[in-house]
Fold each of these.
Amino acid sequence: MNARYWLLTGLLFASGTAGAAPVLIDHRDVDVTRLTLPQIERAKESLHIAYGHTSHGSQLTDGMGGLVGFANGGGKGLALPENAFAWNNGGSGGALDLHDYALCNDVGYYPDWVVCTSNYLDDPANADVNVVIWSWCGQMDDKYSAGTLTNEYLAPMAAFERDYPHVAFVYMTGHVDIWDDADNKAACAAIRAWCATNDRILYDFNDIEHHDPDGTYFEFVGDDCSVYAGAGGAAIGNWATEWQAAHVQNVDWYDCGSAHSQPLNANLKAYAVWALWCRLGTDRDRDGIADVWEERHGGIDRFGGGTNDFDGDGTTDWAEFVLDSAPTNAGARFEIAGLSPTNRPAPVFATSTGRVYSLDACADLVAGDWSSVTSRPGTGAAMALEDGSEFEGFRAYRVGVSVPD
Ligand SMILES: [Ca+2]
Ligand SMILES: [Ca+2]
Ligand SMILES: [Ca+2]
Ligand SMILES: [Ca+2]
């Protein structure tokens, strides 16, 4: 006997997590080959960045400058269009718009940096700026030991986030300091904890300097990438020059300016900051809803994560994004349209691109043990997902929708 009974419990459901999450960019984000051309293009289209820094902070921009030619030459096997990583002040020619030295000095000079940031953002000429990033020079650990890191950095940053909600403010850790190692590490820990706990954006400059490109961790390092046996004393090596010597220039790494340090350090700074630009380009307001989708429906400020439900139809903005239903009206819900004309269970439904649809089965609804049957990326057309397996007895089905990273 091959008796099969089945039931569709029906609705498409959105799977994943809604809501804000911190953006923490560190040594784990230095694989530049993982960035896709659409991500890079989206960052160049949507971001207008003001950057305040002095010498150490120039490692980012010097690295970004060298990356253009490195990528053009096929370094790291990159096969992107010419000048994919181009940037300039104003964003002309399709480049990333980065206002270098837009802000005075670096974030160590309080209250200058606060006054400067307000003046800059209040100037109508800078109305398009939607990312502000400030770098440290040497003052982070001094502020920590003086007990002023919160009042002169974290609190003013938080105030800016409140007062300029359309701007993404990027926190940074400062460069390593082998001569004040304990304060340096403690200051970084405080900044990391603040950003992780409060869903902020962090570019972890310091963490990058503790790792070579293979992810090997060096506990005691100087800002020139020297490696020490402990805090202070004499250097016993240099993670950057040793890695450069063991690898091929213009293939594995490239020469570029790198104030106080080695080219490889600025290479890594550039890869990581492009990972940041790509993350911010995708979801600058960090509500878990792709900004291109929000813009298509009226703007990124209209919709939010968590329980936000712009049209009040009982489906949250985030779930509407995953299901690709209409977030501005209660109609046009996505549902299972019917069953495929087959003797096997096969629900049919409309699909969107950029989504993955999965069919789950459950033989015991009371126990609720759902298992995955099959999944496929959406095509923009109707799709049937079939359970081709042999089974006896009862099975219930559901279709899930998710947005891959
Ligand atoms: Ca968003
Ligand atoms: Ca939004
Ligand atoms: Ca809704
Ligand atoms: Ca709706």
Amino acid sequence: MSTQGSPDVKPDVSRAALGVVRAAVIAAVACGAVLVGGLVLGGSVTEKVIPGLGDAGVLTRWGLPASRAAMDLLSALTVGALIAAAALLPIEAGRPGEGAKEGGRGPGRLSKDAITYLRAASWLAAVWAAAAAATLVFTVADVLGQPVGQVVTGSELSSYVGSLPQGTALMIVVLLAVVVALLARTTTTPAAAFGLLALAGIALLPAPLTGHSASAANHTVATTGVALHVAAVAPWVGGLAVVGVHALLRRDRLPVMADRFSRMALWCYIVVGASGLVNVIARLPDPVELVETDYGRLALGKIALFGALGWFGRWHRNRTLPALEAGRPWSFARLASVEAAVMGAAVGLAVALARTAPPAPAEPESAVKALLGYEMPPQVTPARLATLWQLDLLFVVLVVALGGLYLAAVVRLRRRGDSWPLGRTAAWLIGLATMVAVTQTGVAKYAPILFSVHMAQHMVLNMLTPIFLVLGAPVTLALRALKPARVRGDRGPREWLTAMLHSRYVAVIAHPAVATFIFVVSTFALYFTPLFEAAMRNHLGHMAMSLHFLAAGSLFFWVLLGVDPAPKKLPYPGRLLLLFVTMPFHAFFGIALMNLSQALARGWYASVDPPWGTTILKDQHTGGGIAWGFGEVPTFIVLIVLAFQWYFHDQRQARRMDRKADRAAAPGGRAEDDELAAYNARLAKLAERDKPE
Ligand code: HEM
């Protein structure tokens, strides 16, 4: 009995391949059938007469959801094939001397199967790009109410792609999928496969983030919710498909692959369920609508399928995975094929749901609510900034994930009997608390309306939160808490983290000059170009802006204060110098804002202008004052922290020197060791140089 998971009898390849085709066809038919049923039930394929808008025709009414379903399925399969290559299949140890230093083994290599999945991903991504292009054309026809033929031959397509978020988003999906398709043809290293996976992950987001959730009630929650949803659905659906194919073809390393997939699938299941419910609540604030509306009934169908998929997962964990581990993969392969069909049906239902209009809100939505996703709040006061809560789903997920992972790592160290400084845990949690304070409270509610409040939010995310996060030393904690990979040469999370820390990318991005450049220049580049208004106008832009502030600040303060290992550590005088060189730029930025004669992002602020506010320009001048004044706070904190770090660093140095001297002075030992001698010689030379002539 071989341990590699495949039974000792190799399957008849053509019969196994037939099994794969059969499972794929059943899943596609299930998706198609449920999609058709859902579209008819939801009424989204019946001709609608909208005053002033023509009819796009039957081809578009059916073509759009069909191409969308194809796009969703192919994106999931592409992500699944890339995950198999980069993370599910063990990486093989490099051969001795292969690009290795000092006779060690070279960096890990992708296995033959992993390369095969990369090539498969290349084809899948090419078809994904085609499906996205078709969805783009059908979406233009649908929005303009014109038959597809007219759109394809006319100039509408190009103007639509540039002017409307959905058009731009789908165009980005097409371009990114083409890039993935091209690069997956030649990728051979684990790091590059991981990079491709990240690229495909990004390509999943533009479409749902600009879908009709962008116009739903609570649209900020709805869009983040559907993006999280799709980001969890794709690796789950695609991963199952690839592990199922691997099982049907009885390929090697199946138990490791299935085990890793199963652990990932559990987290995907939790995120899909939670984000799915958030999506439904954002669109159907009244639970009764779940049974009384078409949209609600389709969502109920999805919840039922979700429950069934939970049962499959449980059965795998209790039955088929142990059987697979024991060398009997057949039950796993069979159940995975049925499960793939249920997933196909869920995707079909999802697209029908996305094509079905949620029930219209009881009250007609005001222009401000359509822009903000909530009504204009009352006059801003410090009390309201602190007490009026505003859910930002992205940052809720971020805070819960960062907090949960950090505490889980600390608990693991403690259980192992290792200690972890309380100060670091406290710093990390304070960092997360500052993040909550400006992304979930009244600050988040007023930030899109008032530039001054936006600036306070920006300053905290960019210059305060990062200080505490880097003092939490998350990289050191991760390296200490993560277990090494079980298989020699393979890459688990710990090895990936180490590889990333030693990568050329991190060496460049974490170089003090580069980190400072990003920290300073990106602020000016954002606010004094049209980029700022574009970012304020759509949710995707807004999310990217907040994440950029946090990332650019974390990078800069990692270089300045970080206790974690970093490619290039500046000596303490260098860090002080970097601080004093950088901080004036923030003051310049604040002063530039205080002297604005023309308002920034005037179009946006005019469209959300509060009846109780001051003028837009005056408010932006206040924002400038906040940027200028706020800069002092982090400077002060950094100075104190640097002073302490420097002091303790010198203490440690002195203790080390003393220990060495003691060792050298020990009975029978040499009086002074070479280093101490060199050090004294340098002091003597200095004294000599300074002696008055
Ligand atoms: C608790 C169960 C679930 C709920 C409540 C739920 C709910 C939703 C909602 C409300 C949307 C947004 C539709 C729109 O744009 O209006 C959505 C989108 C989506 N869901 Fe789910 N879902 C669930 C489970 C699943 C499962 C199990 C899958 C697949 C395996 C899935 C796949 C998708 C996909 C692919 C989309 C994006 C559709 C598109 O815009 O193209 N969902 N879901």
